[in-house]
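FIELD: query
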Amino acid sequence: FGAGRPRRHGRADATHRADHAGDARRHHCARDAGRRLGAAAVRTREAAMSPAPFAAALLVALASPAFACGVCAEDKIAATYDHASVREALARGRVVVYCEVAGLADVQRARKAAARVRGVDARSVRVSAQPSAVSFVLDPKQQSAQAAVLALQAALPAGAKLAILKVER
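FIELD: result
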């Protein structure tokens, strides 16, 4: 339908071709451009009436944020996780020990006690009251993670229990 193509629709098309004769820069006539614009408008209306944007908006509106339950091990680990200290500890050949704390009302006592355990980097001790957890960086050449946790538990009041959740090497 471009200029220079023969059309078989009678005198109007012949006149139309004559109007554009010699215009090498123009590839399509205004009538063809109008057809293309009309088709684009139809596609735009179809997209606007599509249910996809409405469904996406509905999902965003109804989505609720995820909350930590505090029961699973991952939540307890995340409560005391510090990426910078983990990265530094692993680079230095240390291990990071994550523990669950039960039967201890004041977790700050666990922080103080852990800082005094042999092999524990006192600056690395992290505690969380809810969920109740403690983590620390340990030099495995000084003592094992199990021995360090037993020493920490011995320094806590009676009834306090520690359980290793994860040892990151």
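FIELD: remark
The beta strands are 95-102, 126-128, 133-138, 161-168.
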